[in-house]
Amino acid sequence: MCLAIPGKIIEITAQLDDVFRTAKVSFGGIQKEINLCMVPDAQIGDYVLVHVGVAIGKVDEEEAIKVFNYLKDMGEVEELGIGTPLNL
Questions:
Q1: Which option is the CATH number for 5-78: 2.30.30.140, 3.40.50.10490, 3.20.20.80, 3.40.50.280?
Q2: Taking the model in full, what pTM does it have?
Q3: For residues 36 and 55, is the Cβ–Cβ distance under 8 A?
Q4: I need a surface site. Which of 38, 76, 84, 85 has the fewest CB within 10 A?
């Protein structure tokens, strides 16, 4: 199954131009480098849905926690090695 996982942008790590930006995103305490090309307006503190290392859209905190909890209920969170939604 292909999923988009919600995470919180904690740092913009590279900005070559308006298209090629990367960010450090926290997924329940685990941090990954993510491409922001599909969400050029994303900023530090925003929640994004990430699929295959690319942020594909922005969501608000409430929606991010809701999606995270759905994934947890499905058993997908443990499989991915991600912490609890309180640490988004």
A1: 2.30.30.140
A2: 0.80
A3: yes
A4: 84
Phi, psi of 74 (to 5 degrees): -80, -5
Which of 18, 60, 11 lies closest to 32, judged by CA?
Answer: 11
Sign of the four-CA dihedral 35, 40, 42, 44? positive
Using CA atoms, how far residue 57 sits from 17, 64, 78, in Å, is: 19, 11, 23
Answer yes or no: is pLDDT of 86 > 50. no
Sign of CA dihedral 16, 9, 37, 34: positive
Side chain identity at residue 21, one-letter code: R
Locate 52 and state its tokens: 């295959």
